[in-house]
Amino acid sequence: MTLFGMLRALQEPAAGAAGGGNASAGLQEMLTHHLSDGKELDFKLLGHGVDVDLSKIHLPVFHLGGLTVDLSPTKFIVFMIVAAVVTAAIFIPIGRVMRNKYSDRAPHGFANAMEAMVVFFRDEVVRRGIGKGADVYTPYILSLFFFILTMNLFGVIPFAARPTGNLSVTFALAALSFILVEGSGMLKLGFKGYMKTIFFVPPGLNPVMAGFMLLILSPVEFLSKLAKPFALMIRLFANMLAGETLVLSLLGVIFLFTNLVLGKFFIAGGSLLMVTAILCLEVFVAFIQAYIFAMLTAVFIGLIRHAH
Fold it and tell me: Rounded to two decimals, what is the model's pTM?
């Protein structure tokens, strides 16, 4: 949800509101509508512009057992694709320039800034978090960071939507990290070594105590594997959703007090100042949350590869 879209959407429910109750109901309805996924892209400002109806685009539907997979686009899917295209459009040309033009000398300008960031992630995030053999994971960790960062920053761009404010999107990202973490552990430790990360018996225990340890700790170890991607999913989703909700709610305060002749100007000014400050903070949070997601993914890979 964007600032322009918020203002237009908030004006509509408040326009016909005779009292505070109707305005509050309109604000609640607007929050639900604009924080959830949908089949429409809104490119209107103060009533002028276009709406793109995505429901007219029909793609194949697959049935996997009791699960129905519909590939038709939604608002968040569209902006996920845009984020992937933007990320690729930035880094593929930079990679080619680094390989061809700067193969024997230091880069400058934007390429130099990107190289510094890549080297930082490789040394301080991937290698430090994973340890020996970490470089093979650097492309994924970097792609994950910049992809999430781009989606996070969409929340402060006019007419864009923030996919990471949707639980399904963060679930998919966390699921990919979970598959990579557990898969890398199995490749490193082998099947028997991997199973010891769930069913572990300290050496020297008698059979009775060993069985007791397995009974108590095995469920805990198994749940801990699920808790890691769950934490990744909830942390990113909650932080991104909270920022959007706060901005929308503060803007809604303006229209809840439309009946006040003089006070509404002070309320509107204070509300816009707070929204501006929060949007600036949201840029910082976008970087922090993308970094935390990528960093914890590297740490989880390192933990299972060095389970001892």
Answer: 0.82
Tokens representing 105 are 């000398």
Counting other chains too, the contacts that 99-103 makes at CB distance below 8 Å and 24 or more residues apart are none
**pLDDT per residue over 139-170, tens digit each?**
899 999 999 999 999 888 877 788 898 898 99
**Dihedral class, residue 278 (left if φ above 0, else alpha if ψ from -120 to 50, else beta):** alpha
The single-letter DSSP state of residue 131 is: -
Residue 220's alpha-carbon distances to 89, 108, 201, 248, in angstroms, are 44, 51, 14, 40
**Distant-in-sequence, close-in-space partners of 59: CB < 8 Å, separation ≥ 6:** 70, 71, 72, 73
Would you say 29 and 36 are in contact if contact means Cβ atoms under 8 Å apart?
Answer: no
Predicted confidence (pLDDT) at residue 188 exceeds the cutoff of 60: yes
Report the alpha-carbon distance of residue 59 to residue 141 in Å, rounded: 31
Nearest residue to 4 (alpha-carbon basis) of 66, 32, 46: 46
pLDDT over threshold 60, residue 211: yes
The residues with which 63 forms a beta bridge, in sequence order, are 68
Count of C-beta atoms within a 10 Å radius of residue 174? 22
DSSP helix/strand/coil, 206: coil
Reported as a single tens digit per residue, the pLDDT across 90-104 is: 888 887 877 777 666
Pairing, β 67-70 against β 61-64? antiparallel
Q: What is the spatial distance between Cα 302 and Cα 136, in angstroms, rounded to a whole number?
A: 12
Query: Residue 17 corresponds to which tokens in the numbers above?
Result: 């509101």
